[in-house]
Automatic annotation (TrEMBL):
Residues 535-566 are annotated as: Disordered. It is found in: Cytoplasm. Residues 76-502 form the UDENN domain. Pfam families: DENN, TPR_DENND3, WD40. GO terms for cellular component: cytoplasmic vesicle. InterPro entries: cDENN_dom (IPR001194), dDENN_dom (IPR005112), DENN_C (IPR043153), DENN_Domain_GEFs (IPR051696), TPR_DENND3 (IPR057977), Tripartite_DENN (IPR037516), WD40/YVTN_repeat-like_dom_sf (IPR015943), WD40_repeat_CS (IPR019775). Forms oligomers. Interacts with 6 of the 7 known isoforms of 14-3-3 proteins. Keywords: Cytoplasm, Guanine-nucleotide releasing factor, Phosphoprotein, Repeat, WD repeat. WD repeats lie at residues 1238-1273. SMART domains: dDENN, DENN, WD40. This is DENN domain-containing protein 3. One of its GO terms (molecular function) is guanyl-nucleotide exchange factor activity.
Length: 1273
């Protein structure tokens, strides 16, 4: 096997040495000899360039065993060589020679070697009469695509020996006239270039190199630097996660920290530096400038601080990303860059402060040395402040950070071990970095939290105008500027793509209960009573007049008098807001010692040794620690790629499917597959797992090519007449309502008596009225006495004009639960009625002088007297709205479905907007088109059958917030934990619901509230789910994959790809004293696979001779399998014990199976068919024919069946009250009779599951799309 030339993801991309040329040094020496005060500035040049590959199979020394790795005769990859040969090439030079030169030269991609010498000496290159200390600084390079590389530079001085008479010049060579020499020192710079921001690690590496160079002869320096660079190209960077790599660069141990997650940055700098240079308010101001994409210039007398401080601020705004020019260090020759008209972030030496300030306009000047922020002269630039509540929270969090390491050491003894001291300091820094990351992330979340409320995911629209209207007037200038930036546009793309990054995770975890409720319901947003009370309380306390909507979990806390500090160096968790941040433990993996002679065979041995160490590590890791296993497989795959074992590399990367698919290197795999030779491709055909891997890669590549663009639109009012389809799109984009059926009824209402299209002016009027109603609701002020009578989650949705009523004069207020009178004079509360208590509602007229004034009469079950209100012109509208709310409440109570009430509320508010929009005689008739529940009450009986009503506990909607309901394909209940110690995350029981197209939603089964994190599992229909302790759910898909979801992170990070057909069922065999727990999965082609649930390895595989294998069940050590044409009893090794086939002479066509249940204690087998209305019961010992059949009345066929206690619950499509509906039959196992028929779904029941035998949950197809929760008797 041939070794690859370059390690993918290597630490080092290249090493460049810069300094003054020999000729320039001679001239400087001569000038110095003439005048000892004349220390000239020289032009720096590139002296050496070292880039991989350093060693190849074809190198002359590759086969030798010499100790000098880089002999003088070895081919050198040199920028200087290229430059000289270009100069010396004649016009008539042959083409072949030019091509040879081009091939001989290789420099880091997108690194400008012309500008690099200036950046290595940003203050200029000047010889010195004294030897100076080594000095480090850091660089950032950006290519045309925005990709960044990073540089770490060390400047050092080397003695230049000069004869006093100037007649001779020698550099480091012995000379007989040494006693007559004077000393002069020339600066040189070594720059390490990497794709990864390992600033501290590369700085430590250069420190080790400088130590070695001090004892090195001048003639060997270039080879030593080249050998050093070659070693660093052997070092892989760690994959994302919690595995850090360690290697020995004598005398230091160098640690490469990994990214925390795939989308996270490498953090190898001290994030607290800006807080040491600036006050917290100034840090916040700089972050504000960055978010507004100002033209920013940092200044310092320390070149290193320029890059480190700028990089810290880039990490502070993560996951937002700076999109513009980023040049933290400008040399003297580059100062004109600050004249650029576009946004940028640059850094200059403090000496240029006045020059930049006076010659440029609208630039933010940040002086790191003094900790000040100002603008260029004349000061015309105004930077709005971050919202006040967000600012207060950030400043409070910062006060709790301990940023002084010496204070942490005050109680510890002195250590004499250098590496132990470094380790101790690193641990403290990592903990502090994590805390700072969480504080700054919370800041970003609090700034942008409410953006989600104004996004339309279906049409990728952001309603910026309405978002700004919801901001406090003092905060609007800030948001107006931020919303126009590229940073924010990129942020919107990520939100609309539903990216699960650090922002999303914190935003979800810090949502208030009110926010969680709103996120799961498609109802208009109004301030809740709780928010009103909080607002009233804050105004009384003299705090901000507006409780920031972006701060749901933050109550005002008086800051402590002194700084908050923690005393332990080993801090493993902290709390930000209401979120406890747990610092995950990291694992260190030590790389082998570098080979002493860096020749081909030694490097190959190095990689083989590394593979051996990784293999040992893999064997030593517990199968439960799959995340760590994945990192080892990833690294071993890289190493196998390097030594040419491409098939072994593919196998390692294949293992990532079973350990952590999140770090799967797609691009590397594509290149690896393309590089396979014919012989290797033949071997792949013989290895099914590799064949599947390559096939899956091809499918994913095709899927990527078909992906739609990720555009973002800003909502605009329509400018053309709209037919129904365009109207639906415009209403959904506006954020008014999402449900297609409701929008269709709204279209009918707005087009009453006219052509079925809506003109732009009508839409604008309707939209404006809707938004004005929202704004009015925000300004509703209820006295404390009134607030005390209402529930915390109630909102005032409609407020009448001041009217005369039978209870006095006042305004009628409508919430989602009740009507009440807000009395005038001294404001007070008089309850009119709750909607469920209304007995009669009608319009009458009251005499006033010679007029008859319309009045609304409401009779309730709780009061004898009738409430009457003289609503005048509003009477008809209020009558319509209250009738719809009353009907919705009745439907919700009868069907145990709160969504009916939510939908009725939306209908009522739309009626209000339609009347306000049309302003004509037909307005009330038009609004009546939206009276969905009131009309439904007349068309169909509202009463639910008594048996259904008694058994039905609740209904929930997994398609909430979608434009139309989706079918419920599979249901799974997972029990919770008895106490929080047993779980790292939420301990509540969960209901998992698989919808169309691979979407999985999760309900908290304690409150039946929809969890915010929807999981996308593939893109095809899901067939089965299985919960495994402690934190896994296995999901079988039509695409032949078993997806494994981590219930703690709510992410799908593992896949089992061994099936060749759609996965139909998964069952678990629990462990006992004789065997370990294992799982079985089946696919439609008859394949059954036995899995080790810890290692995810295939323990056994067998194929059954049956059509359409759909159901698996385990009973007493035997496996029962249901195919379309037969049911099989198997031993665990796949051998068939018995086969059941249903041969019914009374039918012309054979009866096919689709479900079965076993009652071992009764020796019975129950079977059903998709196209039959009967349940067949068989003796297990005699499977020749069923001994009993149960007829299911008004049933068209069975879809699902489960066993609960001594009952069998059967889901089907049947007839109820003359209409086709979803039906559930509850059959008594002892009596063989149907005990109950339950009807709560309007579409076929196709999923059933049991919740600890206390409840049964049923899910229906897409016409209904609801889940019903039934109690078990």
């Amino acid at each position: 096997m041939l070794m690859a030339d370059v390690l993918p993801c290597a630490l080092l991309e290249g090493c460049v040495v810069t300094g003054a040329s020999t000729e320039n040094l001679k001239e400087a020496v001569q000038a110095y000899q003439g005048n000892h005060s004349n220390l000239q500035f020289l032009d720096p040049e590139v002296l050496q360039v070292h880039v991989p590959p350093f060693v190849t199979k074809d190198d002359p020394v590759s086969g030798s065993h010499g100790h000098n790795t880089f002999e003088r005769n070895q081919r050198r990859r040199s920028y200087i060589k290229k430059k000289k040969e270009k100069i010396g090439t004649s016009v008539e030079g042959n083409v072949e020679n030019k091509e040879a030169i081009a091939e001989d030269i290789s420099v880091p991609k997108d690194i400008d070697l012309i500008a690099l010498p200036q950046l290595c000496f940003p203050g200029g290159l000047q010889v010195s009469s004294i030897e100076k200390e080594d000095c480090f600084h850091f660089l950032v390079f950006t290519d045309v695509f925005g990709n960044r590389s990073h540089g770490v530079v060390v400047q050092y001085y080397k003695q230049v020996q000069v004869l006093q008479d100037g007649s001779s010049y020698q550099n480091g060579q012995p000379h007989r006239a040494l006693s007559r020499l004077s000393k002069l020192y020339a600066p040189y710079a070594i720059c390490l270039i990497s794709k990864y921001a390992y600033y501290n690690a590369l700085k430590d590496c250069l420190s080790c190199l400088r130590l070695q160079l001090k004892s090195c002869r001048d003639s060997d320096i270039e080879d030593r630097i080249k050998e050093f660079a070659a070693k660093l190209t052997l070092v892989p960077t760690p994959p994302p996660g919690h595995l850090h790599l360690v290697f020995n660069m004598k005398p230091l141990q160098i640690i490469l920290p990994s990214q925390e997650d795939v989308d996270g940055p490498v953090i190898d700098i001290d994030l607290h530096f800006p807080f040491l240079c600036f006050k917290p308010k100034q840090v916040l101001k700089i972050i504000t400038c960055i978010l507004m994409e100002q033209r920013i210039v940092f200044f310092s007398s320390d070149w290193a601080l320029l890059t480190l401080i700028a990089e810290c601020f880039m990490l502070y705004i993560h996951p937002l990303q700076w999109q513009h020019t980023f040049v933290p260090i400008l040399s003297r020759q580059m100062l004109d860059f600050v004249m650029a008209p576009t946004s940028f972030l640059m850094g200059c030496h403090i000496d240029h402060y006045e020059e930049v300030a006076t010659e440029t306009d609208d630039i933010v000047l940040i002086n790191i040395d003094r900790g000040t922020i100002s603008t260029s002269f004349p000061p015309k630039l105004w930077i709005p402040d971050v919202p006040a509540q967000t600012s207060e929270c950030f400043l409070y969090r910062v006060r709790g950070l301990q940023m002084h390491y010496d204070l942490e050491l005050s109680h510890l003894g002195a250590s004499t071990d250098l590496n132990h001291l470094r380790s101790q300091r690193r641990e403290w820094q990592q903990t502090l970095n994590l805390e700072i990351q969480q504080v700054t992330l919370e800041l970003i979340v609090n700034i942008f939290r409410e953006v989600n409320n104004h996004l339309n995911y279906e049409h990728r629209v952001f309603n910026s105008e309405e978002f700004l209207k919801t901001r406090d007037s003092l905060d609007q200038p800030f948001y107006k500027k931020v919303l126009e930036t590229h940073i924010f546009h990129s942020f919107l793309k990520a939100r609309l793509n539903r990216k699960m990054d650090s922002y999303t995770r914190m935003e979800i975890n810090t949502r208030s209960e009110t926010h969680r409720m709103r996120a799961s319901l498609d109802i208009p947003i109004r301030p809740t009573i709780q928010e009103m009370a909080r607002k009233h309380s804050r105004s009384e306390n003299g705090l901000s007049n507006r409780l920031g909507m972006s701060m749901p979990n933050l109550s005002y806390e008086k800051p402590p008098e002194g700084p908050i500090r923690q005393n332990s160096l080993k801090r493993h968790d902290l709390e930000i807001g209401n979120v406890k941040i747990v610092r995950k433990s990291t694992k260190l993996f030590k790389l082998p010692e570098f080979p002493p002679p860096l020749v081909y065979y030694c490097i190959q041995n190095y990689y083989n040794e590394l593979i051996s160490l990784l293999s040992k590590a893999i064997l030593s890791v517990s199968p439960e620690d799959s995340a760590l296993l994945a990192r080892y497989y990833y690294l071993r795959g890289l190493m196998n790629t390097m030594i040419g074992k491409r098939l072994d590399a593919l196998a390692d990367f294949q293992n990532l499917y079973k350990t952590d698919i999140g770090i799967f290197p797609n691009e590397l795999l594509k290149k690896l597959v393309d590089s396979l030779v014919q012989d290797e491709r033949c071997q792949v055909e013989k290895r099914p797992e590799l064949k599947r891997l390559i096939s899956k890669l091809k499918k994913e590549n095709e899927g990527e090519r078909r992906k739609c663009d990720d555009h973002v639109k800003t909502f605009e009012l329509p400018k053309k007449h709209m037919q129904l389809e365009d109207f639906v799109k415009s209403i959904q984009e506006s954020g008014i309502v999402k449900d297609n059926g409701t929008i269709h009824r709204l279209f009918d209402a707005l087009t009453v008596g006219q052509q079925k299209q809506i003109d732009p002016e009508t839409f604008k009027t309707f939209y404006t009225f809707w938004k004005e109603s929202e704004a009015e609701a925000q300004d509703v002020h209820l006295p404390v006495d009134v607030i005390d009578h209402l529930d915390n989650n109630e909102c005032v949705y409609k407020l009448s004009c001041s009217v005369k009523t039978s209870y006095g004069v006042g305004k009628i207020a409508m919430t989602q639960k009740r009507l009440f009178l807000l009395t005038e004079g001294r404001p007070g509360y008089i309850e009119i009625t709750k909607f469920r208590d209304i007995e009669e509602l009608k319009i009458s007229s009251a005499a006033f002088l010679l007029l008859r004034i319309p009045s609304l009469k409401i009779k309730t079950t709780l009061r004898k007297e009738t409430f009457e209100a003289n609503l005048k012109s509003e009477c008809d509208l209020w009558h319509l709205m209250v009738k719809e709310m009353w009907a919705g409440r009745k439907m919700a109570d009868e069907h145990k479905d709160p969504q009916y009430m939510q939908q009725a509320l939306t209908n009522a508010l739309l009626m209000d907007a339609v009347v306000g929009c049309l302003q004509s005689q037909k307005a009330i008739y038009a609004a009546s088109k939206l009276a969905y529940f009131d009309r439904m009450k007349l068309e169909v009986p509202m009463m639910v059958p008594k048996t259904t009503s008694e058994m039905l506990k609740h209904k929930i909607n997994p398609s909430a917030n979608l434009t139309s309901p989706l079918a419920v394909d599979v249901l799974l209940y997972t029990p919770g934990h008895l106490n929080m110690c047993e779980a790292e995350e939420d301990s509540s029981p969960k209901l998992w619901c698989a919808l169309d197209d691979g979407k999985v939603v999760v309900f908290d089964a304690a409150s039946w509230s929809l969890q915010p994190n929807c999981i996308q599992v593939g893109s095809m229909k899901l067939n089965c789910m299985l919960g495994l302790e402690p934190s896994q759910v296995w999901i079988g898909s039509t695409d032949s994959t078993v997806y494994i979801v981590n219930t703690r992170s709510m992410s799908c990070n593992k896949q089992l790809t061994d099936h060749r057909s759609e996965v139909t069922d998964i069952v678990l065999e629990k462990s006992d004293k004789f065997s370990q727990a294992q799982a079985y999965s089946s696919s439609m082609d008859g394949t059954v696979i036995m899995w080790d649930i810890y290692t995810l390895k295939v323990k056994n595989r067998f194929h059954l001779d049956c059509r359409g294998l759909t159901v698996l069940k385990l009973f007493n050590g035997t496996l029962w399998c249901c195919g379309v044409d037969s049911i099989l009893e198997l031993r665990k090794n796949g051998l068939v014990n018995r086969r059941l086939q249903h041969l019914d002479d009374s039918r012309e066509t054979p009866l096919f199976f689709n479900c079965f249940e076993l009652f071992i204690e009764r020796d019975q087998l129950w079977t059903t068919s998709l196209d039959s209305a009967e349940v067949c019961i068989w003796h297990i010992k005699d499977l020749s024919r069923p001994f009993h059949k149960i007829q299911l009345q008004d049933c068209f066929g069975v879809n699902c069946m489960i066993k609960v206690k001594n009952q069998v619950w059967i889901g089907s499509r049947g007839i109820s009250q003359g209409k086709s509906k979803g039906k559930i039959y509850v059959v008594d196992v002892v009596k063989y009779s149907v005990e109950k028929e339950l009807v709560a779904h309007t579409d076929v029941v196709q999923a059933l599951c049991s919740a600890e035998d206390r409840y049964v949950l049923s899910g229906s197809s897409s016409e209904d799309g609801k889940i019903a929760i039934w109690k078990v008797e």
